[in-house]
Structure formats: C-alpha cells, structure tokens
Amino acid sequence: MSKKKKKKDLFSRIASYYDKLIGDFDYHSLKEYLDLNQNDILLDIGGGTGRASKILEKEVNQCIILERSIEMLKQAKKSSKSLFLIQGLSNKIPLKNNSVNKIFLNDTIHHIREQKETIDDCYYVLGKQGKLIIRDYDRSYFWNFFLILFEKILMFKSKFLTPFELEEMVKNHPFEDINIKRPNKSTFIFEATK
Q: What does the record give under GO molecular function (predicted)?
C-alpha cells in the first residue's frame, strides 16, 4: 500500500526562486508609509521568503514572519538568522493579545480566504496604539484586471478588494484612526491604528 503524496501549493513549489521571480522589496518607496522605529515589534503576515522582513528587521526591535508555507519559511531562514519564523494561518495568529505594535501585510490580503477573521485576529494581537498596515492591489483599478485574471489562471482563489471594502471590514473593530494612502494608481496602503 503506497502513501498518497500530498500536493504542494504553488507558493511552496516556487519558494526556492520566488524572490527572483517577484523582485526586490521596494522599501524606499514605502518607508514613509510604514512609520517604523527601533522599539517596534513587527508581525509580517504572509511574509513568505522574508523578502520584505529581511529589510524591515533593520528598522525594528523584533521582526516576526507568520507564513503558511514551510518551504517559504525555509527560504526566509536562509535570508536572515535573526527573523522569528512561525508557520501558521493568519486567521489563527499564535501570539498573545496586545503582543505586537505593527502588523504588515504586503501584497498578501488578496491571498487570504478568511479575510474578516484575519482582521479580527490582527486587532486582538495589536497592542494599544498599534498599527495595522496593509499594502495591496486595488481591485477597482482597470489595469489590475490582468493581475486578477493571471491569479485566476493560476487557481490562487484570490479575493482582491478595494480600499473601501477593506475599510468596511475593519469597521467591526474600534480602531481610532483609519487612513488610505495611494503610493501609485494600482496599489493602496491601508492603515488602521488601535
């Protein structure tokens, strides 16, 4: 009797060359939006190979990657020995309430099926005056249609949002301040302060 081999998801299959495929993290264009400091404990949800975190960790006290794919985390471990890596799901964050003061989702929320539950967990894990920062592609921008179509072809089951749909989702929690910023036409940066 042979064991059936479990099929890896696409991110696990491309983990070893993901960074080359996607390119460098564009920190300099985002620096002003992230508002990081040396006291921050940053949770990078869906941080994958550490492409962003290996740069962001230099700006904060502690950088934690929460990632579903063990193969992506293996790549993150190669890129930096000081990142704290957790395999897990974004809607079941295995951290204590009020334990981080910045949460960053970089081009990630559209890959998460349980988006509302993820926002719920982010709220509880964030400390007082902590910030939830989400950078993603705006579904309503015409040229993003091709990205959305491409992800459908790859069978990612992505759910792209507009920043206003995300704002409605976040309104279930008493965030003190919500801001939507536009670094360019195709993406938005959503920021909510607890």
A: S-adenosylmethionine-dependent methyltransferase activity
User: In the chain, which residue ranges form alpha helices assigned H by DSSP?
Assistant: 10-14, 18-22, 27-34, 53-56, 70-79, 115-125, 144-153, 163-170
pLDDT tens figures, 43-68: 999 999 899 999 999 999 999 999 99
Domain ranges, residue 111:
24-193
Q: What pLDDT, on a 0 to 100 scale, did the predictor assign at position 1?
A: 46
Q: Evaluate the CA torsion angle 4, 73, 109, 29 in order and state its sign.
A: negative
Q: Give the chain's residues under pLDDT 70.
A: 1-7, 10, 14-15, 17-19, 21
Residue 34 lies in a domain: yes
**How far is the C-alpha of 164 from the C-alpha of 138, rounded, in Å?**
10
CATH number of the domain bearing residue 59: 3.40.50.150
Report the distance separating Cα 41 and Cα 127, nearest Å: 10
pLDDT, tens only, 151-182: 888 888 899 999 999 999 999 899 999 999 99
Beta strand 100-106 with 62-67 is unpaired
- Answer whether 127's CB lies under 8 Å from 101's CB: yes
Is the residue at 19 inside a domain? no
